[in-house]
Design brief:
alpha/beta, Transcription Regulator spoIIAA, globular
Length: 115
């Protein structure tokens, strides 16, 4: 059973990854890593992670978010987060990562923020 389901859609030159499930050690973080790496290989560098359906992220999931962010930045791309649950927002606040990521509540606002 896959812990994390990722569906992909385009809004102009921005790729939105709608995620459902858990980003945890093992399948969840691997699914996120391979999705982001594949998009970069395809030259898609504007990525919006919609976390509305993600109920739980463990430390390896947090590590994967940071690793994906770094990989995208290295390619002069942008990664932003959308629809954080309260639990995930609290987690990013505690780890001080809320200051690293651009976080949005509305999809329109998030899409408009890309350069």
């Amino acid at each position: 059973m896959a812990e994390l389901n990722i569906s992909e859609r385009q809004a102009g030159d921005i790729t939105i990854l709608d995620m459902n499930g858990k980003i945890t050690i093992g399948e969840g973080s691997v699914a996120l890593r391979s999705a982001v790496r594949r998009l970069l290989e395809e030259g898609k560098k504007k990525i919006l992670l919609n976390l509305a359906g993600v109920g739980y992220i463990d430390s390896s999931g947090i590590g994967e978010l940071v690793s994906s962010y770094t990989a995208i930045e290295k390619e002069q791309g942008q990664m932003k987060l959308l629809n954080l649950t309260q639990k995930i927002q609290d987690l990013l606040t505690i780890t001080k990562l809320l200051t690293v990521f651009d976080v949005f509540e509305g999809e329109e606002e998030a899409l408009g923020s890309y350069k």
